[in-house]
Amino acid sequence: RKCLLSRMDDNQVEVLEVSASNEIKKLDHIIKSMLGSMDGGEISTSAYDTAWVALIKDIDGNDAPQFPSCLQWIADNQLPDGSWGDDKIFLAHDRLINTLACIVALKSWNIHLDKCEKGISFVKGNLSKLENENEEHTTCGFEVAFPSLLEIARSLDIEIPDHSHVLQNIYAMRNFKLKR
């Protein structure tokens, strides 16, 4: 770099510095706008994670949730179609695992049963969409997490049919991964 600069006159160096400065400002603006679109870079609220936190029992031994605000968030954020998840884009894997987790959380505390029923209808009506979804859109670990959630749901008397071809494929993928 020093060799290149030593061959340049002062005007050329100044132009180069201005160009670099403008490029830095441009990149700074791009980064700030990207972070601004992500609410300051914070992680967005996850229905799945919120549902798991909502399952935590009160540390004082009461038969109550430790974090009732999580249950309220779940109740307040059900989408009109009965699901939970990203309202801007529909990805079947994401919507189904989020929805089942929220159903399990609400049913565990035996609250908002109307929302549970609406969620169950969504799950039953959309399981078949898993089969046609692009593999790139599959939630990481779905084939392990979703069957586990189904087992928890069944232990809470939540009826989700398990005889479908789609679910059989998911169970087979889970078993394959767990054997490795």
Automatic annotation (TrEMBL):
The cofactors required by this protein are: Mg(2+)
**UniProt-listed Gene3D superfamilies:** 1.50.10.160, Terpene synthase, N-terminal domain (1.50.10.130)
User: Which top-rank group of organisms is this from?
Assistant: Eukaryota
The record's keywords, sorted A to Z, are: Magnesium, Metal-binding
Tell me which Gene Ontology terms the entry assigns under biological process: terpenoid biosynthetic process
- InterPro entries named in the record: Terpene_synth_N_sf, Terpene_synthase-like, Terpenoid_cyclase/PrenylTrfase
PANTHER family in the record: ENT-COPALYL DIPHOSPHATE SYNTHASE, CHLOROPLASTIC
Q: What is this protein called?
A: Terpene synthase N-terminal domain-containing protein
Species source reads Citrus sinensis
Lineage, top ranks: Eukaryota, Viridiplantae, Streptophyta, Embryophyta, Tracheophyta
